[in-house]
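Backbone shape codes
____________________
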Amino acid sequence: MDIVFTFAAILGILSVAVIFGTDVLAAAVLRSAYADVDDRTLVQSAGRGHYYGDRRLPAAGITGVVMSVAACVLAFAGGSPTAGVLAALAVALLLVWLVLFARIAKPINKTLTDAALADVVPANARALQRRWESIIDVRAVLQGLALLAMCVSLVV
């Protein structure tokens, strides 16, 4: 059982790390870059980024949640309650992230993607981007804490 738990935890960690890195990049780099460009460039860059991200990143996000849940179940089943609690904490953090993403970021992603593909600039493009950015630090922290919880679950 230990090897299966370890495998699930490591796969969960790797998958969560993909989303964590993406959110950190957005918080640390893209927010500043988008502030320095005109509205059309903002819409094209962010919209096309969301176009590809929303198609390619769900696999990593889903795998991270599923493997974290599996690690949680396997830890409890294998008699490692501390590891199970840590994995459960990671799952809870990932679910909070998912709610924030689904309610705030995803609709903005779609609006900016649609605008970029239609080559139009919504009048509220900057407001949309500010709203999207308003949760990016929280999203990065949630992913980082989930990643930390999963890593610690491997060593307890």
Observations:
- The mean pLDDT is 98.
- The chain has six helices and no strands.
- Helices lie at 2-35, 39-56, 58-77, 81-118, 125-133, 136-155.
